[in-house]
Amino acid sequence: MNTIVTLNVGGVLYTTTKDTLLKYESFFSGLFSNNFSFTLDNNNNIFIDRSGELFKYVLEFLRNNTLPKRALSDKALLEELLQEAEFYCIEKLITEIKSNLDSTENIKKIRLWDLEDYLKKGYHVIGKGMEPIHYHRCPHRHDPERIGENRYHDSKCRHSHVEVVEEYVPFSIVSTNSPVVPIFDVSPETFTGEQIIEIFK
């Protein structure tokens, strides 16, 4: 019979089955062997002194054989998950994380005035959108002519009339890999500026 197990990982409780945890040869294989000592919390749950927040991704991988899509494009999260995967000795998870880390290295968010240079380098456009930026502008034209990239530079004018401007600026997402799906479009009508930054930062 498949046994239900509750783990206390860094203070966060997870309930799953023994079969799920033993899907791959890993840390858990030793944990449930007779040769492995472990610590129990006050409720007799097995305690593991690792990140409780990150363990949810490890458990999702054990349940579904893949990481959730929301994790695959987040380089910082993948780097943290790699440390957890190595601790739990789940080789298949380690391989998947490293593969996705390699692919994220080839993705960049650029301004439109840089697009031509990146296309010449062999990049492909895989997405586009808008995001808010803030800069200082002199209304009395004490700044150099604002063309292209220079348009969004902070004013060097130090007079009190200088304005703080918020403006939505287009960007492109480019990759060295050819797109295999339609180009996605992130527009302010659908997402707030904060959401756009969160998706592509």
UniProtKB/TrEMBL annotation:
Occurrences of domain BTB (ranges): 3-71
Gene Ontology BP terms: protein homooligomerization
Organism: Rhizophagus irregularis
CDD domains attached to this UniProt entry: BTB_POZ_KCTD-like
Protein name: POZ domain-containing protein
Domain of life: Eukaryota
A Pfam family it matches: BTB_2
